[in-house]
Every structure is written in structure tokens, then in C-alpha cells.
Amino acid sequence: MHIVDRRLNPGGKSLPNRQRFLRRVKDVAQRAVRESARERDIKDLGKDGRVTVPADGVREPRFSRQPGTGLQDHILPGNKTYVEGDTIERPPGGGGGRGSGEGGEGGENSEDAFRFVLTREEFLELFLEDLELPDLAKRRLAIVETEGLRRAGYTVTGSPANLALGRTLRNSMSRRIALKRPKPDELAALEARIDALPEDAPERPDLLASLELLRERSKRIPYVDPIDLRFRRFEPYPRPIAQAVMFCLMDVSGSMTEHMKDLAKRFYILLHIFLTRRYRHVEIVFIRHTDRATEVDEETFFGSRETGGTLVSSALVEMKRIISERYSPDDWNIYAAQASDGDNVSSDGPTSTELLRAHILPACQHFAYLEVGDENGPRAGFVEHRTTLWRTYEAVAKSGGAIAMRKVNHRREIYPVFRELFGRKDAKADA
Amino acid sequence: MVTSLSRPRIQPVKAGELLFTGNDWDFDTIRRIHDACEAVAGPELGLSWYPNQIEIITAEQMLDAYASIGMPLFYKHWSFGKHFAQHEASYRRGLMGLAYEIVINSDPCISYVMEENTATMQTLVIAHAAFGHNHFFKNNYLFKQWTDAEGILDYLDFAKGFIARCEERHGQQAVEQVLDAAHALMSQGVHRYPRKKRPDLASEQRRERERIEHGEQIYNDLWRTLPNKPGAARTDAAADRRRALLELPQENILYFLEKVAPRLRPWQREILRIVRLVAQYFYPQRQTKVMNEGCATYVHYRIMNALSEKGQIGEAAYLEFLQSHTNVIRQPTYDDRSYGGHNPYAIGFAMMQDIQRIVEQPTQEDRVWFPEIAGTGDAMAVLRDVWENYRDESFIAQFLSPKLMRDLRLFHVVDDPDEPELRVEAIHDERGYRKMRRSFARQYDVAWLDPDIEVVDVDLEGDRRLILHHKALNRITLQKEDAARVLQHLADLWGYDAVLKEIDPATGTVLAEHVASARPIFF
């Protein structure tokens, strides 16, 4: 009998099957994921998700008998009162006590929808598929990933952990053969022969001498010599990486209602998940502004509250300052996303336009503006009201500035708008 | 990484010395348990088994095993991923407990046991799987005839490699389509009667090559282009000859397609063959559910009791065993909410015990019903013979005793759609015993349960349409949507139209007809 402990075997044996399965249900799963994203709290997006796909795509048809047709026999246990010839009313739903024999098999087919759990990775994979930062072009070699190690042949020095055993012994063997080191078998044979000889045999001294010679030889020629040693060599190699920085600008002034802030935050959380997941070398700068702008950390950006007036240019000035201090446009891909309710001091318009035109847009790969509105949205019948900021930016966009603008009123619009802003352009053409 | 333990020095356990105390176990414990079970199974029960290999696995690995129908290695297909997701979901929601073990009909016989099992459960599981099932696999005639325990793992390894190579060469999509189609026809892919030769899985790989070479040389009657002699009457004899050439009628549809389908490529044929051989390997298991579980349950019951009598397991362990034993053999009655059909463990175990009773302490009734075995005294000899020579259907038809029918309070209900109400055809009384036993046995006859579908003819002179018949037993027709889907797969493999007629064998009338045209996906 053998006992084998399989617990240490690597897990995920059925992973390839799961991938095949997911590929098969990809379209429906993706739809389900996006639908669920609408209902789920965006903060939960990072967790794994349950999706339901219609059983149709993953049905495994077999020839099976239609229940409820033809003459059917049932043998049932637990008779209490029946005697032969009794009649029983047909139970609702047809079929008396189905389940004997093939009934169990039929259960699977009657299933309408198939429910399973996606891991966090799979969920986000489907969720964020074919999104990317547009135009991630500039590459800079200054920052090098240290983990870019690769095998590069053998070396004669190295740490014992990297000893290339096969190589070393091969060298050792060829050296031993070349120098004619006596094999242990030969020595043993000779010894046996000497032992077998009578004490006074004439050839005995000769044999003893040659044994001595062989022994001497094997002592002088070591089994493994330092000269044989070979080590696996690793060399670091530089890998070009694209660096990007994302500026998140948010208006937190008093005119922003809780609803609007909530919308903006959702948008940024989505953006945050997307960026941290897709790009390992993206830095994110959070700037929030009222009539003054400050750079804050992630937590403050999403968490804390503030009141005050609105001066959009203050944020743009802050952004410009940070760019010039830390993120030279020559080295960095710069992206910006701004969320606001559209309020601005009217005198600030020309300043903002000027800042955008002259400094921000030329430095940026992509500038997205998200205008958050009331939950009820623009009421039907009214001419859509254009906010101060929208008009300012629209003018910039019309005169050729690379600026993408969207308006969002309700939570459920966030994700579609997000996809529009960051959808992979070539993928869209395919679809 | 696989850690295999070499045999450490252990003193044999003396009678009266506990094998373990408490719930914890280690590999020594497992070995002692195995040896103690062996001491009962061999001399006392006279069982014979393949050498055992006991593998400890985690819950996740158990789910893995579930997904690939219990086999330790299997080719890749999305349906296994689906089953895994399904099992995992219900396991996580607590709807389903995992099996304590899975045992594989191979030589050596591999039993997977869960790491969570307590020491008592490990004892139970080893007695059940490593001795009960193992004995059954090694000795039952169906397994001997149809399965190749020695070769199965190598063959699965070959199958897995072959399908992986096909995926590399032809793309996952193309392979998946063939597998989908083959899986749909899986239960129509078994030979139900022995043919000339035992399948020899070990030489499959060599034979694959030979088959391809052979196939390139032989002539396929489908491609006959010579016109018949003008004026020659198309005789029945010609049709018969054609059918004989194509080995028609043929109920093994996968076999038929593999050999005759005109447009399949060699690798596609080989995939059909792999699916067919796997189906064939599992065919005996479907036919012996009750007996297999009955045998294993009876064996573990005997072994556990023997261990308890010898004082090798303590009282607490014995009670724990009884508790899970009674859970396993619970049979809810038909009106119980948890009723889900007959529990093969319950029936199997009850029948084995009943046979023991008949052999050792027969009543007058038993002497009339079972003159050959009643009172012969050696229950194990009778049981071993039963385990060797019967399958569920013949076993129930032969050995279900009136006493057991009374104990289970079995009754027979007929559901005739033409009648307004269900009718009780027979109950557990003198008039009903034989009738009921016959119908009950039939419910375990796989050939009776699976729809009887045959390839009957090919229209060679016309549009090469493949004609299949379903003999609709008791006028039970096929489930429509699924039948259409499967037929679609069949037509795809065949390459031309396929028509399936459902025929009432009593009158010969056609109850339903399905037609499918081949989609151009394989060619």
C-alpha cells in the first residue's frame, strides 16, 4: 500500500477548464458584469462577484426522454395505505413522485440560468476589458525594473545556490576521463585480485606497485575540482516602461451637492481601480479645489469635506505647478480628469481658457471633463442649460483642444460614460 | 510535488489495542488502519483487491476531481470548468457536502480521501473504498469485461496529451466543437454487448497510428461513384449488402461516425474514439450503482464491526461511525420532502444484509423463493459470487426478497397519460412481489433507461442522409429541444443531413421526426 500526500500539489488544476468555460460565456458574463456594476456599490467592485448566465450557452444536450409522455412506471418506497388497484390523483406539476431512475438526470436540463462566482481578477478583467489610456506613447528608459532578470549562460563564479550541477559534473567527468583517473571499480577489482593471490605469488609485488600507483593517481586527480564548477548566470536587463501620471481634479465647493460629489467620487474610484489595475507605473495626483486648490492624498480626496467658493483656474494653476515641478512632459504621459458641477466665477473663464490652451492641454495626452448634475437631470422640455464651465471648455474644444466632455446626472450613467472616455479606440471599431 | 512515504517501521497492532484515539491522524495512523482493515477483509471476508494507493487531498482538489468526473487526469474542456463552478458555488453556499472519498477503478486502486476526515471517517472510508469498491472493481464481470484497470491512467494521459496537441495544431475552437458534439453523443457511444476483443487501452496509441494508415488505404463505400449497370434492378439484397458493409444497424453512434463518417479528419475521428472509450470505461459503473455501493457499504459495515469487536476502535469512534453509516443508508419515503429517488446505498446495503440473513437464518418463505442459497450457511461465499456475476438489473431481479419489499414498503405506480389518475399497479403482497420485482429491476437496466437509438441506414443513392430510429418504449418520446441539439451535432459530424424518427415499436407508427442539416463548422 502507498500513501500519497497530494495536498501540496499545486492547486488550480481545473484553471484551464475554467478559462475555457469563461471564454465560452464571455459575452453573457460581460453583459452580466456590467449590469451588476450598475447596481453594485462601486466600492464593492474590487470584490469578487456573482454572475448569472443563461443556461443556454453552456447547455450540454443529451438524448433524454421527455418526462410526462408515454407510460411511466414508478416504484416507490414507504407505502402506507395503498392497495393494488387504488387510483391516486395526479399531483400538480405532473408525474407521481418523479425521481426514480432517470429523474435525477433531468434536473440539470430544467435549469434556466446558471449561477457562479467570478473571482475579483476575472470580474475586473471582464469589467475593464478593452479600456485603456489613450495614446500612451512616450517611453522613458530612466526607470528600470529590477525584476527584469534573465538567464544568461554560465559563469565560473557564483553563489552555491546557483550551482549548475549538471554542467559541473559534466566538466568533472570529462576531466576525469582525460586525465585517466582510475575508476573505483578498477581499484576494487585489482584489490580483489591481490587478495585472492597466495601470499608468495610471484606477480604480487608488481600488482601491489600498480595498485599503489592507481591509488596515488586517484588521490592526485580529485573527483570534483574547483576548475569544474559552473554557476547559472543571471543578468539584469533594462525594460523600457511607459510612465504616466494621472491628475484627478475635483471641485469640492459648497455648490456641489452630496449627490454630485458622490457621482464624482464614483467616477474617480472607477478610474482609480482601472489605473491601478491596468498600469503598474501610473502615478496619481489628487487635486481638489474650492477657490483654492490643494494637492491631497487619496484618502482626503475621497473622504473629507470642505466648503467655499469656486475658482477652477486655481486647480489648473496647481496642476501646472506640479507638472513643472515633478512631471516633465518630455518624460511623462500626462492625463487629467476633472469633475465639477460646472459652476465657476464668470471672471475666471478667460483665465482658465488661457491656462488650458497655453499650459495644460499641450502637456496632456488626454483631458477629460466630467460634469455632474442633479439626480433628476435636465427636465424634459427645457432647453438644456449650459453651465459656465461647460461653455468655457466647449469653446476650447471647438478651437481644437484635445478635451473630452461628458455630462452625468445619475449613478447608472457613470460606467457607460467611463467606457466612452477610456474605451480602446481600435476595439470599438471591431465591435 | 508528490511526496510518497516509504514504509516506516511500525509494530503490528495487537488485538485490543486502539488504532487511534481522538480525531487526529497521521500517515502512521492511516497505515495502521489500512493494515487492520486488511486483516479483516482478507481472512474474514475473503475479498481480493488491487493494491491500494491512498491519496490525501484537500477540499479544492476534491472539487477538481468532481469536475473531471473523478479521474485524476483528464483532457481540457469547458464543461468541466462549468461543473467545477457549479459544484464550487453550491459547496460554498453550504448546499452540498463533499464526498469523503473518491475511488478510481485502476490498478493500483487509487482512493482519494479528504484531509478533513476524522480518524474514524478515514477508517470508514478506507474500509469502504479501498476494500469494498476495490474488491468489486477487481471481481465484477462487467468491469473485467469492459474496463482495463491497468491501462486507464496511461490511456487518459495519452488522451490528454493528444487533445492538447490537437488544440495546438488546430486551435482550441476546432477541438472544442468536436468535443461538444462527441459529448452530446456520449451515452450513445458504448457497445452494450461484448465484441470480439477486449479493449486494450495500453496499445491504443500504437493503434491510432495504424488506424490512420489503414484508413488512408481502404475504400469507403460512401464514395462509390461507379454507376450501377443500366437496368439492374435495385434489389433488397444490394441494400442489405450495403448495410452489412456499414455494420448497420448500429446503436453505437460514435463508433459508427468514427468509422464511417465521410468527411471527418483523422484527428477528429481520434477524438470521437477517445470520448467513446471513456464512455465505455464508465459504462459498467452506471450499470452497477446499487451493487457497487451495496458491496462497499456492506464491507465497511463488516470491517468496522469487526474492528470494534477486536477492540481496535473505541466506543466514541464506533458511535461516530454508526452515525454517518445511518446517514448514508437513509431512505426517505416517497412522501418525504427529501425524497429524491431510491438511495443506491440503502437498497444495496439492505439487499446484502438480506442475503446474509437468507443464507444464515432463512424463513420458510426464503426457502421457497431462494432454494439455491437459503440456509447454505456461508454468507460471504454467496455474496462474493453475487458481486462477481451480477449487475444491478439481474441482481434485483434475482435477489430482492419479499421480506425486503415488505420492509421497504415498496409499491408500484403506473402513470398513463391517457388515464385521468395514477394507478397503483402492485404493492408488497403475495400478488405483487414478482410483478413489482420485475419492474423494479427494469428501472436499473441501463439499456432500458437510455433511449434506444440506432443508425439504421444511409441514403447512399440520394443525398447521403443519415437515418436514425428511436424505438420509443412505452411511447415515451425524446425531449424535443435537446434532441434537436444533439441531432445537430450528429449532422455536423456526419457532414450531411441526419433524420431521427421516433417509432412506436408496438405499432410501427412514427411519433415524431427531427431533421438537422450539417453546418459547415468542421469542414
TrEMBL record, chain A:
<comment type="similarity">
    <text>Belongs to the UPF0229 family.</text>
</comment>
<feature type="region of interest" description="Disordered">
    <location>
        <begin position="47"/>
        <end position="110"/>
    </location>
</feature>
<feature type="compositionally biased region" description="Gly residues">
    <location>
        <begin position="92"/>
        <end position="107"/>
    </location>
</feature>
<dbReference type="InterPro" id="IPR006698">
    <property type="entry name" value="UPF0229"/>
</dbReference>
<protein>
    <recommendedName>
        <fullName>UPF0229 protein MET9862_04279</fullName>
    </recommendedName>
</protein>
<dbReference type="Pfam" id="PF04285">
    <property type="entry name" value="DUF444"/>
</dbReference>
UniProtKB/TrEMBL annotation, chain B:
<dbReference type="InterPro" id="IPR056174">
    <property type="entry name" value="SpoVR_N"/>
</dbReference>
<dbReference type="InterPro" id="IPR057270">
    <property type="entry name" value="Ycgb-like"/>
</dbReference>
<dbReference type="Pfam" id="PF04293">
    <property type="entry name" value="SpoVR"/>
</dbReference>
<protein>
    <recommendedName>
        <fullName>SpoVR family protein</fullName>
    </recommendedName>
</protein>
<dbReference type="InterPro" id="IPR007390">
    <property type="entry name" value="Spore_V_R"/>
</dbReference>
<dbReference type="InterPro" id="IPR057008">
    <property type="entry name" value="SpoVR-like_C"/>
</dbReference>
<feature type="domain" description="SpoVR protein-like N-terminal">
    <location>
        <begin position="24"/>
        <end position="447"/>
    </location>
</feature>
<feature type="domain" description="SpoVR-like C-terminal">
    <location>
        <begin position="451"/>
        <end position="504"/>
    </location>
</feature>
<dbReference type="Pfam" id="PF24755">
    <property type="entry name" value="SpoVR_C"/>
</dbReference>
